[in-house]
Amino acid sequence: MHQITIIIMLHLLLCSVLVFQGCTQEPPPGEKQKITIVFKHGKVFGDPEPVKRLIEEFEEQNPDIRVKDETLPAATDEQHQFYAINLEGKSSDFDVFGIDVIWVQEFARAGWLRDLSHILPQERREDFFQGPIESATYQNRIYAIPWYIDAGVLYYRKDLLEKYGFSPPKSWYELVRIASEITRKEPGLYGFIWQGKQYEGLVCDVLEYIWSNDGDIIIDDRVVIDSPENQQALTLMRDLIYRYRVTPEFVTTAVEDSTRHIFSRGRAVFMRNWPYAWNLFERDDSPIKGKVGVSALPGFPGHRSASTLGGWQLGVNKYSKHPKEAERFISFFTSYEAQKTLSLTVGYRPTLRKLYDDEDLIRAQPFIASLYEVFERARPRPVTPFYMMISQVMQPEFSAVLSRIKEPEEALKTARKQIEFILSVED
Ligand code: GLC
Question: What's the domain range around 352?
């Protein structure tokens, strides 16, 4: 009886050792257990391969980490919705994620982002453009690392402007004149295309008219959106479509990439867009290769031109189970070398100032040196945790003006009242 008990016990012990071994899946001797982190970001326009190759390079240099690359739709509003829902639910399904410059305040206030101030101590913040650093800072702490910068720019057909003896326009009215003349002589071309759909991109475009007329949305907690300057700005945008007819009506449903496609087929003289598009125009199969110029946007006569600051940062999900590995990934992906590669390939413009002196980069993309000033001066949208709510008030009002449902004065007055209400409730 005693012997049988011992045999049974030994048998059970052996079984449990085997089961335990099976469960832990010990890696082969000499190889460390890999940790998988998930990198979530918006879809890359054009060819996503360079991003994948950079991820592989990181994995080679960090053999203990595997990165799962997961993309979301490109539209910022849709991505915002995804993150807000998932982070509200404390999801740890992703570790590193792309954050639009306009979300950092909101996400940091909600406690959804890991504090990354130690990655960017004060003395390193100077290496970056100031705008992205301000957007990444909440209550003096850094919550995301600037990845690439965007600022609205004017693309123009260099060949056509030269043919008719024009230089890039400095004022909106000059643009109207040039676009009208060239489209009259070159039938089948659109004059000027931009982003007029009801979404975040429309707010970016409208602000460039508002700021280049010395208007604003909020000054020192005062909502000033219904000013005469802003009325004039919206009126001009509407006039581009229905009065001057240099902008086709379909812009009221257009986004960045739909306008980029039209321009890249050689169908428009001018386009407002972000700087990513240039690399795609210069591809060997592009019908407009070598024919495109990029300049600062025009402004109202006598005023300085203004560009909306856009761009993306990388942050760590507060609920991530692998924050240290996530930080290593971010340091790699925002490094000098990674930013250089991404500018050369997918057209993501560096947030690191020094890259604008990089010889290889300037040789390959001479125009980016001329954009340095535009990036330096690009203006952030209102930096507040309630920005998305404010934007969601502005979007339908601006859109109603462009589709001639409302007069600018009425639309701006409604927006003012609603923004004042948001700020009074959220204080
Ligand atoms: C670009 C910009 C981003 C902006 C968005 C609007 O992705 O980088 O900041 O919010 O466009 O469509």
Answer: 35-150+310-377
